[in-house]
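To whoever is on call:

I kicked off a structure prediction for a single chain this morning and the downstream step that reads the tokens threw a length-mismatch warning. I double-checked the sequence; it's 492 residues and nothing unusual in it as far as I can see. Pasting both halves so you can look.
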Amino acid sequence: MRLVIVSNRLPIVIERDENGWKSRAGSGGLVTAVAPVLQRVGGLWIGWPGSGCTDESELERMLVEHGQRVGYELKPVPMSQAEIEGFYQGFCNRIIWPLFHDLQSLCNFKPDYWTNYLSVRGKYAEIVGRHAQPDDFIWVHDYQLLGLGRCLRELGVTNRIGFFLHIPFPPPDIFCKLPWRLEILEGLLHNDIVGFQTPRDLENFLDCIRKLLPDVRRRQRRGVFRCVSDGRTTDFGVFPIGIDYARFAQDAADDAITRRVAELRRDIPGQQIVVGVDRLDYTKGIPDRLRALHLALTRYPELHRKVSLLQVVVPSRESVPEYQELKGRIEQLVAQINGEFTQPGWIPIHYVFRSLEWNELLAYYRAADVALITPLKDGMNLVAKEYCACQIEGNGVLILSEFAGAAVQLKHDAILVNPYDLDRVADAIRRGVLRTPKQRRPAMRRLRSAIQRQDVFWWVERFLSACGVAARCKGLPQAVKTLETGPLGATG
């Protein structure tokens, strides 16, 4: 049995330079988590290839070449500019994304967005139905494709279908603001299994079922809730996503990374490096974080010349006005703080607005004494786990928002903060910086151990086992067994 991964985007970025079109591996939480698994077990990934290359033959060539490099097939779902604007930029990112992150004031419930969503969802379903083989397990990912299971069933697809939501699921009082709330809930009931990141997300979903679909029968068994509706049975469970721990830990110890870490420490001498790595998004709480740093520097002068924030912001959705405005606010705060506190030989904030190459990202993680990860709300936040995996010396401190899904797993050894409480975040920065090695090492050792145990392969095996297909998925048991006895090495 193969794995068929279906997501909004393919795990590649298509670009053009002076030599023509080329592709490279994409970034983001879904690609980081799922690509290593599919690479090891084989299968197929279906998604939108991006709006770059419009030459179908050239696109097919790049997808074939990339598939040969990574060890699995890629099949594109083409979209017109109108579909991109209505489906992705509209329904997905002006309705579902802000609503599911408790930011309903940013929603635009335009009826045409729903119409575009239905049209594009049907296109995904048609391509999945065309390429899936009878024994394949179809694993649909994230909020863009919430109702794909229903659409596949209507096309006559009988494969087992799983759906995993990578972002939070809102409570009923927020979810009920969605005009198409019943269609979304009923659509999820057409999957065989649905996974959430945290118990809170599952509880919110079940509360919505109780309120909006009271005729659905529910029962619990071994941590999995089963819902029965119109003769269909769907299981719902909590499956916190992990990272490819072996790859991060092994690559972070590479000699080239070690040399780059030494360069970073020479460039920022005698200071504690605090790192933040975020995609440009209003859910990440970057302006609040900067205000908390300003408060810490104002309140605790002993931090002057002792702390530098290395804040990385990865460009995202820059054509959306809200994101352009957010970028401007971040840069204004950086300039304000640096202008107020900079001294000869010390700059409080080193601001990086670009995507990082793999080696550079690992060097930033490993060089940082403290990670400051304070999203306003996050499904999981894999940056927290990546940082800990790269802390091979074990001297790091993790400051983490209590509203990140990762807080459920890491709360005992991270410094948890409410990102809206600037006083407490400022205090946490000071406490993190002043922690001694004797205090840091046991906590970081436990953090790394927990992340290693519940890595991305544990996540996949647990999800597929709950669906009853893990033993039939080609190569998965061997991959998990190999990881238990030793690292497989770098991937991607």
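Update from on-call: the warning came from a stale cache, not from the record. Cleared it. Sanity check on the structure: The chain has two domains: 3-241+458-485, 247-452.
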